[in-house]
Sequence to fold (217 residues):
Amino acid sequence: MFLYNWYFTPVSHSAVVAQGIVIGSPKFDDGDEIHTSEIKGLSLVAGALLATTASGRNYTLLPETIQQACPADYDKWQYITQNCLESFAIDADSFLANCRQKQQAADEKAGQLLAAGGLLLAVAGSTVIRAYFKGETGQLRKPLLYTHLGMFQDSMLLKEGDLDFSYFPEDNRLTPYHLSANIKNLHIYNLGRQPVQFGETECPPGQLVQISASEIF
Fold:
């Protein structure tokens, strides 16, 4: 099992759990946000963290998908993360440096893939795990996802400056209902185990699918 956008949360003086978006769980759907039971073991395997929990399950925490806190909470996040890693004899400074290196490599790969007006969405189930957008000037952005509480159905929003993408989440389906004019092409990378329907386009597991914005509306 994998946890994406993961982070550690203390639940008592000595107990810590991991939270994030799960893929590969026998209990939860891909794209569900979960927290584990108490972490009982933490080890490095090929540069990733392998977390063993009190329930006996193992979770792989990829360094490039670590979820860092906003600047206002950064010191607290760093303190919790370092303490958790070091309590299992893992060099926190070295691991966090590797996280930054892996994230930079992922950003560069996304930048090489996208042309101006390109929006890359890494998805699982009905969840957008990570997004990249390249504007007309060639600047790569990583917009954040927000939940919009609707009267009849909630929707998800990617909004940053002149970028505006909105969709309705359903079971293994994302139904877009608004794209700003500066979005020219979408690249949907399905990280999950099941096909994901994006509008009228099926996105097979483990594949990257390109869709022209003109095909959506």
Observations:
- The first strand starts at residue 2 and ends at 10.
- The radius of gyration is 18 Å.
